[in-house]
Amino acid sequence: MNWRRLTAFVVLLGVIGMYTCVLAEEGATKKRSVYLKNTEPRLVATIKHQGPYDDIPGVVVKLMAGIEKGNHLQAGPMMIIYFNSPQNVSASELLWEVLIPVVNAEATGRDDMDKMGFKVFDPMFVAYAHHVGPYEKIGETFDKVFDWIEVNKYPLSGFPVEVYWSDPETTSPEKLVTEVWLPITERETPGIKR
């Protein structure tokens, strides 16, 4: 028996097997639309606001002006946490918070309404998906993540978050990329239906 040929054959089978697994995982990843991850802690400049979502641009401008005035540096994409839903409260009662990761600041623990403060945004375990398209259709992506959480029986552990990866001033609405997070309780994940 030629051991070199046998060894080469076994190595070839192993390479073919690994390549097949990589292709299978790539195919599964392309089909899968909801993912899990642990987010990183980050220092953020923040403003909490009560009012309609139409107020978001004005609050963002105010927060950006405060960051610039204090010579803080933006260190990541803008995020918004939504504490209630327009399905449950009137537009004037909507409560949300704009957060922008920064450096050159100290956490103050301040949480005054409509005043800029700094705090540490704690890490979370989240189910998340990417929404590509106009903000008006982001509810469809949230519905998809909520459905996935329900099917896989994860308990919610926090409020919905949107992470804005595109600048709406320079990106067409069809190409806007937003990541939606739903904080959940971390657990073992056998049998996940993706």
Describe the structure.
The protein is globular. The model is unreliable at 1-30 (pLDDT under 50). It has 194 residues and is an alpha+beta fold. The protein is built from 3 helices and 9 strands, in the order H-E-E-H-E-E-E-E-E-H-E-E. The protein has helices at residues 3-31, 56-69, 138-151; strands at residues 35-38, 42-50, 73-74, 79-82, 95-103, 117-121, 125-132, 161-164, 177-183. It folds into 2 domains: 1-32; 35-183, Multidrug-efflux Transporter 1 Regulator Bmrr, Chain A (Alpha-Beta Barrel), CATH 3.20.80. The longest helix has 29 residues, at 3-31. The N and C termini lie far apart (47 Å).
How would you summarize what this structure contains?
The protein is of the alpha+beta class and 194 residues long. It contains three helices and nine strands, in the order H-E-E-H-E-E-E-E-E-H-E-E.
Percent of residues in helices? 25-40%
CATH homologous superfamily heading of the largest domain: Regulatory factor, effector binding domain
Number of helices: 3
What is CATH's topology name of the largest domain? Multidrug-efflux Transporter 1 Regulator Bmrr, Chain A
In terms of DSSP E residues, the strand content is: 25-35%
Structural class: alpha+beta
User: Which series of helices and strands comes N to C?
Assistant: HEEHEEEEEHEE
Quick check: average pLDDT? 84
- Tally the structural domains: 2
